[in-house]
Design goal:
With 534 residues, this protein is mainly alpha-helical. It has helices at residues 2-16, 20-27, 32-38, 57-71, 81-101, 106-111, 138-143, 147-162, 165-169, 176-190, 195-203, 207-211, 214-234, 240-255, 262-266, 271-281, 297-314, 319-326, 336-351, 355-369, 373-389, 393-401, 413-426, 434-450, 455-467, 471-484, 488-499, 506-533; strands spanning 115-119, 126-129, 133-137. Strands 1-3-2 form a three-stranded mixed sheet. A hairpin with a 3-residue loop joins strand 2 (126-129) and strand 3 (133-137). Helix 2 (20-27) packs across helix 10, helix 17 (297-314) runs parallel beside helix 19 and helix 24 (434-450) runs antiparallel to helix 25. The longest helix is centred in the C-terminal third of the chain and has 28 residues, at 506-533. The chain is flat and about 70 Å long. Residues 1-52, 172-177, 188-216, 255-265 and 285-291 have low confidence and may be disordered.
């Protein structure tokens, strides 16, 4: 089951990329069984002369992209449009503030990705990868009570990237250690269905070496706390979110852990660190965190509640978990926590095809979110998801065309993908004019022209083109979706298939010819990197 296997390796992945992994790599050569798996079709970046005593910025960027090419293919790296959009909207002001403060030098701003991604995992965790990629577990979204708490974790991880903590930890390593780093990270993903093997690989016989790095790691954590706190407040978030986040997590972990708090183990929470966070804000160390709406006011609080509920239902897809969620009593109080519960119940009931239960929960969620536009938009998306799941595609189209449905057709990525999903599902069963399909194709084409690495958008565009009968355009969009995740061979195969049909549309055929040359060049470069990696 996807959730159980990622839960088993999530603590490993986080710890590897902060303290443990680097130490292990300095003491061990690259493990041969893992190397065999990751060098088969997954090139590692060649560092060449750029690898000196400290990892160069371009080399870190290439390393991070190679790791992400593998992670993007993992089914537990989830492109849920609403959650992805929500986290990106929290992340963007933090990144802008960090640049304005001078925490992100120009070379880092240009070379690193500065991207977030969402992991389907119920553990409370987030982690920074080389190259400026930050992963956020759904369990973290589900646990936080305000956007400021979630933003505080993002600010902390952003600071790990901006201060180049991974590169700094490797300042005394030999050149081959970066190859071993990439190999081990990708190997752990390949071994994710065998947690025992991964545990043995990482931790076998390395306890002494690991202990020697802990003090350095704690210094990094303090630095990320200090810089992250400044970034958090500069971005307009309430700084108390960091204090509240750490204190609630520490309190919960004392009551029960059950391997659900890897963020605590990789980011040790001492009383000193929590006190330091309070002191930076001038808050009495003995006082409890202030329970307010935080930054953004009531609207932000209710939107966060809607995202909490969505994350709770999507972070663990096992039937037993879904049944437990769907059977929860619907709360009668009018507070954000009630919206989170109603949203989770509605989505879980939908997955279990308990339509009566889903309708009751949706009605309650709709009532609670009504005064808040952003939260209402999230509930509309949930209603559309439910209508599609039960096959009521006429109802989904009607909702999309209503005043309520207009809330999601706002030009945002999440809105575009949701509208596209409804149209794709409805096309075979509901008579649709070509005009709404064409409009959505045009909107997505504008989007991907500015975001060419958005595999999800390319995939939706491909399906829309296929629904319109535009086979050649669909093939090219499908090829771009594969290219966006680094599957250059898959992209080339689809472009070649398009070439064989290029007589249908000479203009599209010319574009395919040009793109195939670029894709084949990237594939050749990938093969060269593989040979150097070996």
């Amino acid at each position: 089951m996807p959730t159980s296997r990622t839960a088993a390796i999530a603590p490993l992945l986080t710890t590897l990329l902060t303290t443990v992994l680097t130490t292990v790599l300095l003491a061990l050569p690259a493990p041969q069984p893992v190397m065999a798996q990751v060098t088969n079709g997954s090139a590692l970046p060649a560092l060449g002369d750029e690898a000196g005593d400290e990892l160069s910025v371009p080399a870190e960027a290439r390393l991070g992209e190679r790791i992400m090419q593998q992670l993007r293919r993992d089914p537990d790296v989830v492109d849920d449009p609403l959650l992805v959009e929500y986290i990106e909207r929290l992340w963007s002001p933090l990144l802008a503030a960090a640049k304005a403060r001078g925490d992100v030098p120009e070379d880092l701003a240009q070379h690193l990705a500065w991207q977030t991604f969402v992991v389907r995992d119920r553990t409370i965790n987030a982690f920074a990868l080389p190259g400026g990629h930050v992963g956020v577990h759904m369990g973290l979204v589900a646990m936080t009570s305000t956007r400021d708490e979630l933003a505080s974790v993002l600010a902390h991880e952003l600071s790990h990237v901006s201060q180049r903590h991974i590169a700094r930890m490797m300042s005394s390593s030999r050149r081959s250690s970066m190859l071993a780093l990439a190999t081990t990270v990708l190997g752990i993903m390949a071994l994710s269905r065998s947690p025992d093997a991964a545990q043995a690989l990482v931790f076998g016989g390395q306890a002494v070496a690991i202990q020697g790095q802990l003090n350095f790691s704690r210094d990094m954590e303090r630095e990320a706390d200090r810089i992250g706190s400044g970034i958090l407040q500069a971005a307009g978030y309430d700084g108390i979110g960091m204090v509240g986040m750490f204190e609630r997590m520490a309190s919960a972990s004392r009551l029960t852990d059950s391997n659900a708090f890897p963020y605590l183990r990789s980011h040790p929470l001492t009383g000193e660190r929590i006190a330091d966070a309070r002191n930076r804000l001038g808050v009495d160390a003995a006082a409890a965190p202030t329970q307010t709406a935080g930054s953004g006011g009531a609207s932000a609080l209710w939107l966060h509640a809607a995202m909490q509920g969505r994350a709770r239902a999507l972070m663990d897809l096992r039937d037993a978990t879904q049944q437990q969620l769907a059977s929860q009593a619907l709360p009668t109080t009018r507070e954000p926590a009630s919206l989170a519960t109603a949203s989770a119940v509605a989505l879980a009931a939908t997955r279990l095809k308990l339509w009566g239960r889903a309708d009751l929960a949706l009605a309650r969620a709709r009532e609670l979110a009504a005064p808040h536009e952003s939260a209402s938009r999230a509930v509309v998306v949930l209603r559309l998801d439910t209508l599609i799941a039960r096959g009521d595609l006429s109802g989904a189209i009607a909702l999309l065309q209503s005043l309520e449905g207009a809330r999601i057709d706002d030009g945002s990525r999440a809105g575009m993908l949701e509208v596209a999903q409804v149209l794709i599902a409805a096309r075979p069963q509901v008579p649709l004019a070509d005009e709404p399909l064409r409009r959505q194709v045009d909107a997505l084409q504008v989007w991907v022209s500015g975001h060419p690495e958005d595999a999800g958008a390319w995939d939706h565009l491909s399906q829309l083109q296929r629904a319109r009968g535009q086979t050649l355009a669909a093939l090219r969009a499908d090829a771009e979706a594969h290219a966006a995740v680094g599957d250059w061979q898959g992209a080339a195969d689809r472009l070649r298939a398009g070439q064989r049909q290029s007589a249908q549309d000479p203009i599209e055929g010319a574009v395919i010819d040009a793109r195939l040359k670029v894709v084949e060049q990237r594939r050749r470069q990938q093969l060269q990197d593989e040979r150097r990696g070996e």
